[in-house]
Write a structure and sequence with these properties.
By secondary structure, the chain is of the alpha+beta class. It contains ten helices and five strands. The longest helix is centred in the middle third of the chain and has 17 residues, at about 115-135.
């Protein structure tokens, strides 16, 4: 497997770039977020994923380790191939995707070209628990992933349900509270104020 490449960009033609490493030119497909992160740099390092199929070997590159991690989680979902995963990462930033999955915002995910409502719902179901367990290097993605897993959340969620809120509604209310250090009572109060 090719896990990381460091070299010089010879050409950029989104979503593809040609990266020269030790005299060899690698054609690498990257999400638009990686192109934005690269900017005008010529000498770069990319985290890579090699996809092998009967008729092709395709190399995908990412400016950050977190993008590569999310990409690998996306392609594990049945019906989502590497090109669709690339489209998702091009349309949504990591923290937006993690937040959409945690808040079950299938409408936002379905706005990605090539993703319908059913696929968006399948992504949410399959990724919700897996993304919460991941350790992201970028704190913005980490905050989005762990925001709904405050230690007080299970009790707060239960309390909100006993107040008459549905599970999804209560989860969304709790997800809007950004302070993870709150006690259960304070968390419930914040969630109710943000409703």
């Amino acid at each position: 497997m090719i896990g990381k490449l460091t070299g010089t960009i010879l050409t950029k033609n989104p979503p593809e770039l040609l990266l020269e490493v030790g005299g060899i030119g690698y054609e690498i497909l990257c999400p638009m977020s990686s192109f934005y992160a690269i900017g005008e740099q010529i000498n770069i390092s990319l985290h890579t994923h090699l996809s092998i199929k009967e008729d092709s070997h395709t190399l995908f590159g990412f400016a950050s380790k977190d993008e590569k991690t999310i990409f690998r989680e996306l392609i594990r979902v049945s019906g989502v191939g590497p090109k669709v995963a690339l489209a998702i990462l091009s349309y949504l930033e990591i923290n937006q995707l993690v937040s959409a999955v945690q808040n079950e915002d299938d409408a936002l995910i379905a706005k990605t070209p090539g993703i319908g409502k059913k696929t968006a719902q399948k992504l949410i179901v399959e990724l919700k628990d897996r993304l919460a367990k991941l350790n992201f290097i970028d704190s913005g993605a980490q905050t989005a992933a762990t925001n709904s897993h405050n230690q007080s959340n299970p009790q707060a969620l239960s309390a909100l349900q006993s107040l008459g809120f549905k599970v999804k509604e209560a989860e969304k209310m709790l997800a809007n509270v950004s302070d993870n250090s709150l006690s259960t009572e304070e968390l419930i109060r914040q969630a109710l104020q943000n409703k």
